[in-house]
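Dear support,

I submitted the protein below through the web form. The confirmation email said the job was done, but the results page showed an empty box. After a refresh the structure appeared. I'm attaching both so you can tell me whether what I see now is the final result or a partial one.
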Amino acid sequence: MTTSRIKSQPAYSPFEWDRGGRQHILFAAAEDPALARRLFEWPPLGETVVLSVQDPQAPATDGWLAGLPSGVEPRSAPRLDAALQQLDHLLEHAHMGARLYLVGDEDAIWQASRVADRWGMGADAVHRHRVGTQARPVFCVHCRVTTRHVVTNIVECDGCGRALFVRDHFSRHLGAYMGFQVDAEAPGERPAVEEIYR
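What the results page shows now:
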């Protein structure tokens, strides 16, 4: 028996440079050694910036910024929030024909997607490649707070404390999966907590 993917869930394609782009911005919020090795086997044409979330204590030879070809501008930030601010600045000054490549877990990818949305980047200009953890951002439909890095089928909401059942329905607008109070109809009746998303 095969299981079908929920229509609302995003589909992620293998990483590939868009040859139609005139400017390329790679936002790397997670490391993938296999991807890093082949990133520049076929380098893009045009101005290219690589912005990575990188531990400032890590050696300069480690991670995404090691061995970039000449002409590629490396940038880094110590935390995701700081990288998102840099991305906002880069997109503010981006050229017509810019392409954005988002690499990371779903939470980072969709937070960065919201930055791109603010600058009016069309769907064809944004490429998403998920790597790293399968953990989910979960939006509480009761208090409207997003709980991040969820790996279980039930999670305590960071906002209201309700035990939320993590649904498979994904909202691109919110960048998160929907979470509903697990025992709303039968208070106290909860299924076992299982680790599902690693």
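Response: this is the final, complete result; the empty box was a page-load delay. Residues 175 and 186 are 29 Å apart (CA to CA).
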